[in-house]
């Protein structure tokens, strides 16, 4: 076994073309580089015109930016996907069982598998949710699990996004763009479709409607507004599902239901797919300064008269400190060993772990427990001595705020550059829908790619791009 | 439909209409400036008055020159009614009501914004002005065309239309009001060549020259021009055409929702009191007073629609 060599998903470890790419490679060889270059520009034009942009916080100037799109697809075989999706499903079931338990009897704490303070002292734990049973018993209606690959069958979970995962519009638009630009590729490869996602999402949300809902449930998407970084996606999903896109000021409580102000008066909503954080959901119950939320929505929620997707308080399940307990969590609730690997994690709140991390800063990735978007982290192997020294101070000052992980040899997938194909590191975020009717995983997901050579940071806010992700029908 | 969405649609199409009208006014102003030998810069004051942007201009500039006037109307960020400002507003509103628009309309709006923004990124050269004006007209026409060709005929469409025609009626009234004195019968006796230019200005600024000629031939009299722009319902940029369109679309809403509001009363009264007399009655009453009253009535109607259809809290 060659530990040092990185897996390239197209060329393997030793320049031997891997099966899923056979058909693609035959096509690529016959292509003219100049034509592909024109296609790459064409793709950018399509994205710009469609308005698939994200807003960068704190930058008035470059208000809207495009996430770079790379035309080389990432291809996964049906067999690989099957195993992967079994692992994802297992994990998502465990997360929902964990959330129910944490907000009810806390058996897992009583069994000593998770220390009490990891829950009670956690900011992501919402006391308001204790004893509340969400409609349909579902906590995380939409989950985006971040995975990285290190070997043929080795996938690690980096993060379980159980709050309001974003990026699904890119999965859909990337595919749409590829279909438009390279129809011939889809005639030659049997690629499993992703386009059913919006219909599946609506169905899945409707299946979680409150018990008092008769007839077809009214679904709405709640957005913080047009200045939010993911506004495009919020509008996109509402449009594709054929439901209203609402903001807090469109809503109020009328006759014990959450209702939206229409041109014909207030109309009740049954299911709210919210894309605002817990803190901003209800100024009466949480952040009193929030102008985004709906005063009193939590009271309607506790009365079981609205479904909020995802449920408030799910953040406790994707918290980076809880993450390290995930193998235990999966085992505790499913009775099986976790199929997907967890990245070994040192909790810096523990003195032994902290000592180890401080001794090995140059080899580790250190992250903030509540951070996201690739900010506030240290990537030891690529950091300068000065950066490491500065980070050491922050870590020593607040060890409980950090976890550390080894750097993984992330797999690469080729991107299209001026000189032809070149390998770049990738991750994968598949999207999972949960309802009482079952768990549905869209075959594919969002592949993010670090466009800079050798870089491991795939976040769009820091120079990452995206790719269309194919799951082949074997 | 959300009240907010109705609001966004209404304003999106108001701004779109304003962009087109403003660019047409610039075109007209430029043409007059080029065809007149005496103090051509004076005309820009009246052009800016017509566009309703003269007062704000004076706050930012001491003198009126062709260059600054054109720049103010096309691209000044401090001018909320400059073409660039209203096209940005059109797009911002379109983003807000994205779910109510077809893909085609959204792409047309977004494309319009991208191209116009690019064309107006810096001061427009006199040489490039005709091409820039054409671009604005083409891009806004594309939004109107996709709206016409791809949108369902439902309440969404009705609010879009109400916004379009309220803005249009407002703009035509202003154009006529700024120039009303050249249309008064008493001026006819003066019969100077200046008046011919002024009349042509009015017709040009609402793209009515061809239509007018078809109906009235080459002999323009102020009475015919006023009749044509106020009361001829065949003319898509006449007051009557616009106001009847507002009423029609409000009636569709009433039928669709099964509810009549105070705004339906208002629009009915507006049609009765402004569209039922003939042009001589209007001159007898006083053209300026008539237009002022009409502008006030249009303002009241707009505000009542906002309330009746819950645009805001």
What does it look like?
The complex is a heterodimer of chains A (474) and B (313). Chain A has a 5-stranded mixed beta sheet with strand order 3-23-22-19-18. A 5-stranded mixed beta sheet of chain A has the order 13-5-4-20-21. In chain A, strands 7-6-11-12 form a 4-stranded parallel beta sheet. Chain A contains 15 helices and 23 strands. In chain A, α3 packs across α13. Chain A is α+β, with helices and mostly antiparallel strands. In chain A, a hairpin with a 2-residue loop joins β20 and β21. With 313 residues, chain B is mostly helical. Chain B has helices at 3-35, 42-50, 54-60, 66-74, 83-96, 103-119, 129-150, 155-178, 180-183, 185-188, 193-205, 209-216, 222-231, 239-257, 262-275, 279-285, 287-308. In chain B, α6 (103-119) packs antiparallel against α7 and α14 (239-257) packs antiparallel against α15 (262-275). Chain B is globular and about 60 Å long. The model of chain B has no long low-confidence stretch (mean pLDDT 91). The chains are: A alpha+beta (474), B mainly alpha (313). The A-B interface holds A 48-51, 226, 231, 235-236, 238-239, 243-247, 249-250, 260-265 and B 1-6, 92, 95-96, 98-99, 106-107, 110-111, 114, 155, 159, 257, 259, 309-310, 313.
Question: What are its keywords?
Answer:
heterodimer, A: 474 residues, alpha+beta, five-stranded mixed beta sheet, 23 strands, B: 313 residues, mainly alpha, 75% helix, 0% strand
> What is the N-to-C order of secondary-structure elements of chain B (H for helix, E for strand)?
HHHHHHHHHHHHHHHHH
| Chains forming the largest contact | A-B, 23 and 23 residues
The fraction of residues assigned to DSSP E strands of chain A is 15-25%
What's the rounded overall pLDDT mean of chain B?
Answer: 91
* Count of helical stretches of chain A: 15
Radius of gyration of chain A: 23 Å
CA-CA gap between termini of chain A:
27 Å
Share of residues in strands of chain B: under 5%
The shape of chain A, in one word, is globular
Low-confidence stretches of chain A: none
């Amino acid at each position: 076994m060659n530990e040092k060599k990185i897996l390239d998903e197209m060329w393997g470890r030793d320049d031997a073309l891997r099966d899923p790419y056979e058909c693609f490679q035959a096509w690529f060889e016959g292509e003219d580089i100049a034509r592909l270059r024109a296609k790459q520009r064409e793709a950018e034009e399509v994205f710009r015109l469609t308005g698939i942009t994200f807003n960068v916080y704190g930058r008035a100037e470059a208000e809207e930016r495009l996430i770079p799109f790379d035309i080389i697809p990432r291809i996964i075989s049906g067999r690989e996907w099957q195993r992967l999706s079994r692992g994802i499903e297992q994990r998502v079931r465990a997360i929902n069982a964990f959330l129910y338990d944490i907000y009810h009897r806390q058996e897992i704490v009583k069994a000593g598998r998770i220390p009490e303070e990891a829950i009670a002292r956690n900011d992501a734990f919402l006391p308001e949710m204790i004893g509340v049973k969400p409609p349909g018993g579902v906590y995380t209606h939409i989950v985006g699990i971040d995975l990285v690959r290190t070997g043929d069958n080795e996938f690690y979970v980096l993060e379980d996004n159980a709050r309001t995962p974003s990026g699904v519009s890119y999965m859909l638009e990337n595919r749409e763009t590829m279909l438009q630009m390279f129809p011939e590729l889809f005639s030659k490869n049997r690629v499993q479709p992703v386009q059913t996602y919006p219909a599946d999402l609506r169905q899945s949300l409707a299946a979680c409607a409150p018990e008092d809902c008769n007839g077809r449930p009214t679904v709405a998407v709640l957005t913080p507004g047009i200045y939010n970084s993911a506004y495009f996606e919020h509008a996109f999903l509402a449009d594709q599902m054929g439901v209203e896109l609402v903001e807090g000021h469109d809503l109020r409580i009328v006759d014990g239901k959450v209702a939206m102000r229409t041109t014909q008066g207030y109309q009740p909503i049954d299911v709210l797919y919210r894309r605002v954080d817990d803190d901003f959901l209800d100024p009466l119950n949480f952040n009193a300064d929030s102008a985004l939320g709906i005063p009193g929505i939590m009271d309607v929620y506790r009365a079981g008269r609205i479904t909020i997707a995802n449920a408030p308080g799910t953040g406790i399940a994707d918290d980076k400190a809880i993450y390290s307990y995930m193998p235990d969590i999966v085992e505790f609730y499913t009775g099986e060993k976790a199929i997907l690997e967890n990245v070994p994690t040192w909790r810096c709140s523990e003195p032994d772990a902290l000592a180890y991390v401080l001794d090995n800063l140059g080899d580790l990735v250190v992250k903030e427990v509540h951070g996201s978007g690739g900010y506030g982290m240290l990537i030891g192997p690529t950091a300068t001595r000065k950066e490491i020294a500065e980070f050491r101070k922050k870590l020593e000052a607040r060890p409980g705020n950090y976890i550390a992980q080894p750097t993984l040899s992330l797999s690469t997938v080729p991107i299209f550059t001026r000189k032809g194909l070149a390998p770049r590191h990738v991750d994968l975020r598949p999207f999972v829908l949960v309802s009482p009717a079952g768990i549905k995983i869209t075959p594919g997901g969002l592949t993010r790619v670090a466009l800079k050579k050798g870089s491991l940071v795939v976040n769009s806010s820091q120079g990452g791009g995206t790719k269309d992700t194919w799951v082949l029908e074997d | 439909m959300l009240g907010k969405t109705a609001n966004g649609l209404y304003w999106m199409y108001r701004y779109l209409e304003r962009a087109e009208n403003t660019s047409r006014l610039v075109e007209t102003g430029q043409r007059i400036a080029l065809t007149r030998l005496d103090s051509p810069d004076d005309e820009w004051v009246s052009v800016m008055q017509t566009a309703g942007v003269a007062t704000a201009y004076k706050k930012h500039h001491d003198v009126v020159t062709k260059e600054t006037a054109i720049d103010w109307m096309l691209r000044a960020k401090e001018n909320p009614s400059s073409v660039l400002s209203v096209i940005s507003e059109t797009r911002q509103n379109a983003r807000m009501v994205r779910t109510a628009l077809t893909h085609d309309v959204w792409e047309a709006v977004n494309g319009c914004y991208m191209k116009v923004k690019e064309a107006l990124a810096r001061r427009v050269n006199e040489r490039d002005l005709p091409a820039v004006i054409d671009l604005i007209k083409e891009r806004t026409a594309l939004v109107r065309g996709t709206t016409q060709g791809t949108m369902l005929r439902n309440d969404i469409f009705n609010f879009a239309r109400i916004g379009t025609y309220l803005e249009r009626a407002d703009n035509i009234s202003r154009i006529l009001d700024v120039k009303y004195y050249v249309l008064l019968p008493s001026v006819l006796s003066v019969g100077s060549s200046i008046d011919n230019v002024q009349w042509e200005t009015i017709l040009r600024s609402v793209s009515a020259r061809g239509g007018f000629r078809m109906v009235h031939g080459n002999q323009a009299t102020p009475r015919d021009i006023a009749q044509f722009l106020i009361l001829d319902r065949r003319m898509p940029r006449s007051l009557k055409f616009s106001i009847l369109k507002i009423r029609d679309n409000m009636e569709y809403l009433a039928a669709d929702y099964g509810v009549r509001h105070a705004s339906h009363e208002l629009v009915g009264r507006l049609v009765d009191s402004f569209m039922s007399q003939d042009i001589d009655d209007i001159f007898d009453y006083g053209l300026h007073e008539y237009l002022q009253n009409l502008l006030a009535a249009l303002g009241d109607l707009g505000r009542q629609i906002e309330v009746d259809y819950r645009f805001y809290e």
